[in-house]
């Protein structure tokens, strides 16, 4: 999922550089949403592993 957010971030940068404002904005929004979802899942995974007594690293 982090990979997809990076792909959309790069797409947003390239589209912004080429002047596709609408596409750049959409790709940037998707990248932000995917990044937040990735962080939430990462934190949830850490919490669940800590509650179970497993190593979080």
Textual characterization of the structure:
With 57 residues, the protein is mainly α. It contains two helices and no strands. The longest helix has 32 residues, at 21-52. It is rod-shaped. The two termini are 19 Å apart.
Helix and strand pattern: HH
Gyration radius from CA atoms, angstroms: 16 Å
The class by helix and strand makeup works out as mainly alpha
Note the beta-strand portion: under 5%
SSE topology:
Blueprint: H1 2-18, H2 21-52
Helix pairs in contact: 1-2
Write a concise synopsis of the structure shown.
The protein has helices at residues 2-18, 21-52. By secondary structure, the protein is mostly helical.
Key phrases:
57 residues, mainly alpha
């Amino acid at each position: 999922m982090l990979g997809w957010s990076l792909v959309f971030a790069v797409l947003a940068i390239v589209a912004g550089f080429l002047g596709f404002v609408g596409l750049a904005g959409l790709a940037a929004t998707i990248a932000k949403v995917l990044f937040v979802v990735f962080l939430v899942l990462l934190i949830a995974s850490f919490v669940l592993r800590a509650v179970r007594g497993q190593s979080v690293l």
